[in-house]
Amino acid sequence: QSVLTQPPSVSGAPGQRVTISCTGSSANIGAGYDVHWYQQLPGTAPKLLIYGNSNRPSGVPDRFSASKSGTSASLAITGLQAEDEADYYCQTYDSSLSGYVFGTGTKVTVL
Amino acid sequence: EVKLLESGGGLVQPGGSLRLSCAASGFSFSNYAMSWVRQAPGKGLEWVSFSTGRGDNTYHADSVKGRFTISRDNSKNTLFLQMNSLRAEDTAVYYCAKFRGYCADGACYYFDYWGQGTLVTVSS
User: Fold this and answer.
1) A87, A6 in Cβ contact below 8 A?
2) What whole-number percentage of chain B has pLDDT above 90?
3) Of B113, B122, B111, B121, which Cα lies nearest the Cα of B5?
4) A88, A38 in Cβ contact below 8 A?
5) From the DSSP assignment, how many helices (H) and strands (E) are in chain B?
6) Of A22, A25, A34, A36, which one has the fewest beta carbons inside 10 Å?
7) Does A53 touch chain B (CB under 8 A)?
8) Which residues contact B40 (CB under 8 A, 6 or more apart)?
9) Three-state secondary structure along B61-95?
10) What percentage of chain A carries pLDDT values higher than 70?
11) Which of B2, B94, B108 to mutate to test the interface with A (most CBs of A within 10 A)?
12) Collapsing DSSP states into helix, strand and coil, what is residue B57?
């Protein structure tokens, strides 16, 4: 049972904007710990998408953006493309568990 | 180019043991923390274990504490996960991941590179 909750699925047409929420608590996101995001394409290993709440590693398109506020964080994909169809996970640190935690994951479908 | 290559997965009976390895290349291995993350079939990601660069501090998730041990051989650029007393719920793809952060207490750490994973199946 993950301590970070994400919607199971979101969908959008090509070119549209979709957002994925990541809801935590005062023991993790609300405690000020940074949130990171990963993309997992079907049948492959996860890939770092966003680190430190809103920073994109080299090579990640600027169509991907993220933010954090209070006990939640969100990932936005603008100009949705077919290649964005994947599972997305948020991740942070949890002080009550003394460990790193992932969100429940969200499947993005491009209609 | 950073490369992480896991090996050692397979089928094991409940109560058995298995040792996973992760061969790293393309970066100064001893300078970076490393971690294991697993993913049960059709499920989400779960952090398992973490080792500092020198291997002098290690941490494990409660779900594996006392059964799994992370270690590393910096002379061979290799990370290990010794898994004992395996249970059916340990069945998963195990990923080796390079761990990176920008704070002193480790709370900001994230996984910047991942291996392709190795499947561990615990079943009789």
Assistant:
1) no
2) 94
3) B113
4) yes
5) 0, 11
6) A25
7) no
8) B46, B89, B91, B92
9) CCCCCCCEEEEEECCCCEEEEEECCCCHHHCEEEE
10) 99
11) B108
12) coil
Put simply, whether B62 touches A (Cβ < 8 Å) is yes
Give backbone dihedrals phi and psi of A56, rounded to 5 degrees, phi first. -100, 130
What's the rounded Cα separation, in Å, for the pair A64 and A56? 8
Burial of A59 (0-12, 13-18, 19+ CB in 10 A): exposed
Task: Point out which residues pair with B59 in neighbouring strands.
Answer: B50
Give the number of other CB atoms < 10 A from CB of residue A73.
29
Burial of B23 (0-12, 13-18, 19+ CB in 10 A): middle
Give the C-alpha separation, A95 to B35, whole Å.
18
Reported as a single tens digit per residue, the pLDDT across A49-95 is 999 999 999 999 999 999 999 999 999 999 999 999 999 999 999 99
A55 contacts on B by Cβ (under 8 Å): none
Kindly report, residue by residue over B52-102, the tens digit of the pLDDT.
999 999 999 999 999 999 999 999 999 999 999 999 999 999 999 999 988
Rounded Cα distance between A34 and B109, Å, is: 9
Residue of B nearest to A90 (CA): B45
Residue among B30, B38, B52, B25 nearest B83 (CA)? B38
